[in-house]
Amino acid sequence: MFKEIYFWMYYYIKRIKSNDTPAFSSYLLICILQSFNVGTIGILVNYFLKVNIDKNTTVLIGIVWAVLLSIINYFLLYAKREIKFYEIQGC
To answer: How many domains does the chain have?
Structure first.
């Protein structure tokens, strides 16, 4: 699913003439959107379970999740971007 999202983001960002690196921009956008999704789940868990976590721990957890998602997305999407574009386009 993320392959297709990455491809469509790349496709539309590539059409913007002022953007020199559409592949990297798509990668960053997917990382940011996934981080927001994980953060939303964290907020819901905190609301329903009344977990008391201080601000420093919350920031540390957020940074760890963002780095983890960035590493995973790098190896799954960005590092193999040329191969995936050909797979999705059917070439």
So the answer is: 1
pLDDT digits (tens, 9 = 90+) for 4-57: 777 777 788 888 888 788 888 888 888 888 888 888 888 898 889 988 888 898
Decide if 10 contacts 23 (C-beta within 8 A): yes
How many Cα atoms sit within 13 Å of 52 on the Cβ side?
Answer: 0
Give the tokens for residue 37.
């999704």
Q: Give the other-Cβ count within 10 Å of 73's Cβ.
A: 19
Nearest Cα residue to 80 out of 6, 17, 12, 15: 6
- DSSP per-residue codes, 40-66: HHHHHHHHHH-----HHHHHHHHHHHH
